[in-house]
Amino acid sequence: MKADSSDKYLQYLKHSFDTYSHGQGMNFTSLSDAYKKANVSATPDDIERQIKLSNTKEHNLLDFNEFLAVMDRGDHEESVLKVFGILDRDNDGVINSEDLQQGLLLFGESATDEEIDIMIKAADVDGDGLLNFEEFLKILTPSKINGQ
């Protein structure tokens, strides 16, 4: 049976992962090296953020499934960044309850103040009562763990 293009791409990613991880998992340096080899432009902050968002085991090494999440995240992350920019009306880098309330209205939705507070608390990892981009991205990124 002939492998289709998605199978070939997956095999290519597996080969790249194995080449750069040396069987130990992919860290900042190996992901950076892979990007350089592929002529992908990414700042050290971009790479750190990608590892942080994809690393489900919190040991700073990406396994193959986490590496796939990094590779799939690019277009999705850009889309989420656009939505974040719309909601962050004062451009302070965070979404507060008023930003979220106004954003919902923009998209034809509404919520009570209590519902807004619940939404923010559910996503607010650092407990500051605001949503930064990483927190916002996590809510809008499907997870293989919860079957999305």
Automatic annotation (TrEMBL):
Transmembrane segments: none annotated. GO terms for cellular component: myosin II complex. It comes from the Eukaryota. Coiled coil: none annotated. Keywords: Calcium, Repeat. Residues 75-110, 111-146 form the EF-hand domain. InterPro entries: CALM/Myosin/TropC-like, EF-hand-dom_pair, EF_Hand_1_Ca_BS, EF_hand_dom. GO terms for molecular function: calcium ion binding. This is EF-hand domain-containing protein.
